[in-house]
Design a protein that fits this description.
The complex is a heterodimer of chains A (about 500) and B (about 475). Chain A contains 17 helices and 19 strands. By secondary structure, chain A is α/β, with parallel strands linked by helices. In chain A, the strands form five sheets. In chain A, strands 15-16-14-17-18-19 form a six-stranded parallel beta sheet, sandwiched between helices. A five-stranded parallel beta sheet of chain A has the order 10-9-11-12-13, sandwiched between helices. A three-stranded antiparallel beta sheet of chain A has the order 1-3-2. In chain A, β11, α9 and β12 form a beta-alpha-beta unit. In chain A, α12 packs across α17. Chain A is elongated. Chain B has about 475 residues and is of the alpha+beta class. Helices cover about 40% and strands about 20% of the residues of chain B. The longest helix of chain B is centred in the middle third of the chain and has 25 residues. Chain B is globular, with a radius of gyration of 23 Å. The chains are: A alpha/beta (about 500), B alpha+beta (about 475). β4 of chain A pairs parallel with β1 of chain B.
Amino acid sequence: MKDFKVLKKTYYDSVTLMSVTIAIKKALNLNDLVMFMGTDMNKEMMNSVGLYNQVFDEATPNDLLLGVEMEEENSDWADQVIEQLNNKNKKHESANTIYKTIAQAKEAKDSNLAIISVPGIYAANEAYKALENDMHVMLFSDNVSIEDEIALKDLALKKDLLVMGPDCGTAIINGKGLCFANQVSKGNIGLVAASGTGLQEVTVIIDKFGGGITQAIGVGGRDLSEAVGGKMTLKGIDALNEDAETKLIVVISKPPHKNVLDKIINKLETVKKPVVVCLLDTKIDQKIDNVYFVSTLTEAGQKALELIGKKTPNLTELDNELKTRIQKEKELKKPTQTKVKGLFCGGTLAAEALSILRGGLDGITSNVAKKENEKMKNPMKSQGNNLIDLGDDMFTQGKPHPMIEPTIRLDRIISEAKNPETSVILLDFELGLGSHDDPVGVTIDTIIESKQLAEKDGRHISFVAYVCGTNKDFQGLEKSEKLLRDQGVIVAKTNAHAAIIASSIVGGAK
Amino acid sequence: MSVNKLFKEKLKIVNVGSPSFIKDYEVQNIDYVHLEWRPPAGGNLKLLSLLNRIRPNMDLINKANEEVVSKIKAAEAKLVAVKQAIKVIPGMTSHMILHSGPPITFDKMCGPMQGAIIGALMYEGLAKNQDEALNLAESGNITFDSAHHHNAVGPMAGIISASMPVHVIYNETHGNYSYCTINEGLGKVLRYGANSEEVLTRLKLMEKVVMPVLNQAVEIAGGIDIKSIITQALHMGDDCHNRSKASSALFLREVAGYIVETNFSDEMKEQTINFIKNNEHYFLNLSMPYCKVALDSARNTKNSTVVLAMSRNGVDFGIQLANNSDKWFTAPANYVKGLLFPGFTEDDAAPDIGDSSITETCGIGGFAMGGAPAIVQFVGGGVQKAFDYSKEMHQITAGSHQVFTLPTLDFMPTALGIDILKVVETNILPIINTGMAHKKAGVGQVGAGLVTPPMACFEKALEDFAKSIQGEK
């Protein structure tokens, strides 16, 4: 049936009427509904859709005309329509402001740092836009071409801006951790690093023994290559040298290209502040006033603390308690159990362990090794003493990095436990922003299971672990370490310390 | 140094990419903005590499674009005459029909455009009835051309035939002219393809009464300043595309006294005043030729990537650039999304049609939506959404129009000079506020809403531009 109603002097603007008509029609289950103000044109339109009635004839443009077609008779339909109309009219979706471009964000919020983690093929373009808008850049994305990296860093230098990355996973700027970073105290040590976990390890050591940091600048793993020439490392050193808060500078890198090393040394000769240079696995004999070359992350942390007057225990020493423990572990071994299996989430931590263990463990191989004779033939399959970086592309194809998802390491722990030659399984755990919510927690059952598996076979597996984190990290350092100790895992003070313990269990340490 | 400045500032982050970092910013109380990031150029690596290839020429391009924007801004527009098309439009002949959008042949035209042409041929007396008109249109004896090729524009079908009166707009700054028909009003009208007796009668009234009266009034006035009416109307809730209520009233206020001064009969004066008064879209046919005359002043500015025309013929959407302005870059037109009048569904609507998107090209219309709260429900949201559109358009333009400001946005100038490089890169398309025509001739308007040009127009323009600038070197 059809019905009609005129509401005298009830004005609604036509756009409101149009915008709610369909919704009301649906809500009240009407076959058809027209709502119009009584202008001549509107009357004509209602006529054309067959919902006109002579009660509309006298209506004025200030009168609301309602025409309805419905299945069942309903005398209240007009009141219901008006109620709906008033409800709908009240509700206005207030859209939140959406930002689609870096320029928009810059204009609205005066942003000063862009953190870019889009796919590599697009990342350089966004970084250009950020620099064009006078913003600093942290380029988390990898797969950025070396040409783009060079061009971006040149542009940044011209504009006195930072480009941290590409493939930069860690930085701490103004006390705020970015991407993968630990919560550490503020202090007077500034860092520049071409390594994410390297930077995490040194800041954690500094924090643990009473030090603190000003800035931790990541530069990306390729910054010290010959092509890039250490552009951002040099820039970072300059910035920290100028920074009044920074009293001491720490530079961390895997071995740089020789030409780049020369540039850095030239730069350091002009720096007045003391500098600790940690070039992993590289011995530098050069003597420069106020510059201290070290080759492990632990040494870097320890030296930095010493230079700002903080006393630290010997972080690589095996105290009596540990010595006793190691002796006990040794006594439980079968003769076949002679090898250390390091399963790492942090690539730089694996590299540091390699630099420490190569003296003590025969034929040690690793997928992070640079020397031909140390390269692991097939990282998927362990043989002998091995240190495996599970963050290697070959393990992470289409999967998250093991720092985010440590469960990709679990199967490997089981298979190492089944291997009769395995004596020690060496593990690292990274806490902090960006990392898994409970990396130890998701691993502990597998540790228990693998011990039991071995025991059925009469073997005792020693677990040695290092947790890179602080008590301020949301996962909790103490809690994580306790969980490990409760299951008989030996927990080390630093990553280097863990490597030394592992080595001494298989008799490699002096 | 600026890096050291950062060390002393509060960190304010733009997060581009993974949202998983957001919780880390929140727990550390870091100010951040998370971008609604989409791959630039729609993820099209070929286009991205074109953009990168153009990058070394940015200084040259920026300079050309600045020149274009300042020319458009400097343009002044006066309505100086209302005359028959054949008397004023360059190249117009008695057997020529101009239409909206890029060039198209009669057989390919959409229903409303064909209907309007049939009406125009009968109005011109070239055909006695619809059948005759159809035969004539198909015979090849009528020349069809894009109005844009004759410095003219028209809403919807945009049909201009020889006898039709047109507004003549003169740009005093650059000395060029533009032309546009007189708006017929709403309902059954030629621009929507209607061609009944009622329609033709109205066209005759416009020719015999409105044209002579208005022409003389304008002469007495010494021209009516159109740009200044737009400036005022933007402060009165008009966007000068979908809403021309205020501007039409202002125009009538400017011209009414002069109409009275003319030597025509009282009846003719009254008819003219009522004709303008009864049509709240009257001014659309003045804002459009203002935009046309301003944009035309910058045609063929080498190395400029600014768009000087956006236009639709009901089948294709076409754009023209400042660089090489005579080339069209076309792609199939989109459908308008918005509110439909009762009794109609989306299936009834024709594809986007008309030259009225010249308003957006010149920084008003959809670009000024934030200043037209009364019509923002067409966007399907509240006023905030309209504000966002008006602000967002600044992301894709080479400049802004200081004279056209939006009070609701703290007198923010409207975005001006759509830059194809920015459109392709940001993937943000110009927003157009427009009416919807029924796909069948003569039914008329079925709704109104928002539409964007197809991205392909900008992609094609970019490809052509990249070739052109490579040739420069």
